[in-house]
From TrEMBL:
InterPro entries: 4-PPantetheinyl_Trfase_dom, 4-PPantetheinyl_Trfase_dom_sf, P-Pant_transferase_sf. This is 4'-phosphopantetheinyl transferase superfamily protein. It holds the Pfam family ACPS. Keywords: Transferase. GO terms for cellular component: cytosol. The lineage of its organism: Bacteria, Bacillati, Bacillota, Clostridia, Eubacteriales. It comes from Hominenteromicrobium mulieris. One of its GO terms (biological process) is lysine biosynthetic process via aminoadipic acid. The keyword Transferase applies. It comes from the Bacteria. Belongs to the P-Pant transferase superfamily. Gsp/Sfp/HetI/AcpT family. The keyword Transferase applies. One of its GO terms (molecular function) is magnesium ion binding. Residues 76-145 form the 4'-phosphopantetheinyl transferase domain.
Length: 170
């Protein structure tokens, strides 16, 4: 899995962010994957994919200040989040009891929750289910500071103030 991130002005609209994310993807596909004229389509649940045989899998995300994409020979998902205030009930809706305990015992519970959220959204994008599936259906653990979920290779980092996560089928 390859991840690509680009800083953009924080004043961009959602449409401008969307367009910049796709521009990044098209540039990456041409320059690094040799795909000059990709055709992007979407599944019924909205997961983008490249039309054609033997094409790599793709995922895109954007948030205030950055756009990103991931390209892989396996199913892949990427998510970026800008820090924001989150209501306590949000964690209870998306996290398992063990994850909630980890969040509550963290020195920075808001940041820990956003780490889980970003990871879970990247997994949902990888699976192609988006927000149609309960995030409580899978439990992420951290082993030696690295996120883990059986069946997936997970990546997480704080990119400046942003949270960036990617998931790829193992």
């Amino acid at each position: 899995m390859r991840r690509y991130v680009e800083n953009v002005p924080p004043s961009l609209t959602q449409k401008e962010l969307h367009d910049r994310a796709y521009a990044l993807l098209y540039r990456v596909l041409k320059d690094e994957w040799g795909i000059a004229s990709p055709v992007v389509e979407k599944t019924p649940l909205g997961k983008p994919y490249l039309k054609g045989e033997n094409m790599p899998h793709i995922s895109l995300s954007h948030t205030k200040g950055i756009v990103c994409c991931a390209v892989s020979r396996k199913n892949v998902g990427i998510d970026a989040e800008y820090p924001r205030r989150v209501r306590g009930s949000a964690a209870e809706r998306v996290c398992t009891p063990a994850e909630l305990w980890d969040i509550q015992s963290s020195p920075n519970p808001a940041a820990r929750f956003l780490a889980y959220w970003t990871l879970k959204e990247s997994i949902a994008k990888c699976r192609g289910t988006g927000l149609s599936e309960s995030f409580q259906n899978y439990e992420i653990t951290f082993q030696n500071g690295m996120p883990h979920l059986n069946g997936y290779t997970l990546f997480f980092e704080q990119y400046g103030v942003h949270f960036l996560a990617a998931a790829e089928e193992a």
